[in-house]
Amino acid sequence: MGTCIYCGKPAGIFRKKHRECAEKRDQGWNEIIRLAKEAAIGTYPLEDVTNRSAAIAANSFLSSNEIREAMVTGWEKAVEHFLEDGNLEPQEEIRLVAFAEHFELTQEDLDKNGAYTQFVKGLVLRDLMEGKIPERFRPIGHLPFNFQRKEKLIWAFNDVKYYEDRTRRRYTGGSRGVSIRIAKGVYYRVGSFRGHPIETTERIHVDTGILAVTTKHLYFYGPRKSFRIRFDKIVSFTPYSDAIGIQRDAATAKPQFFVTGDGWFTYNLLVNLSNLEN
Length: 278
Prior knowledge:
alpha+beta
């Protein structure tokens, strides 16, 4: 006879939980998340969340650790709510910070699913749109770049796939032709050329590495390729869902692409920073 993992009472042969207990647990879990989100947004009193969530947990088979997990999930949903319009207002930042401090949630707690990183990204973009140089990003470990004097790091992306568009040429329509003697010892082969050139463009994965954005340059470092590009040498930015494409101001420059995983943020970061520097 199995025992219910929630209420501790017999659950039947080969069963680990009662359906009613599981439903009660899920309802309680979702209710605490809803309360946490509303408190982080500012539509529910922050000081009432602890007692209310404890009462719900007591009736829903939820532990104190699960309450804390629900608080983190509620905070994540609040970040998502605030960023729906692409902006993170100062008052929204204050509410999110106050919620995290009230429940003693660490950066590690809040970034398990990347929500804290999204929160900081919103702050960085707000700084740029207000004409400020962001100083919110802190890299973990040493970056392999030689930044110039008075150059400030704005953001760095790890595991960035770098692609280049390269043109390949092949010939079609050639023939062996015939040889015509022009003078003694000199022959001109008619039709000996390889035909007409046909060019095709292929997007090639060149390397994977770190992409750093500073106040002056775009840096890339990988095992096979390393370079930096001045912002005033970039003539266009092309946004993609998970990447950014750039075109440098050079006659022979080919389009370059960086897959950062967050094309929206990367595009807005580079465009706003470029405009700020100009």
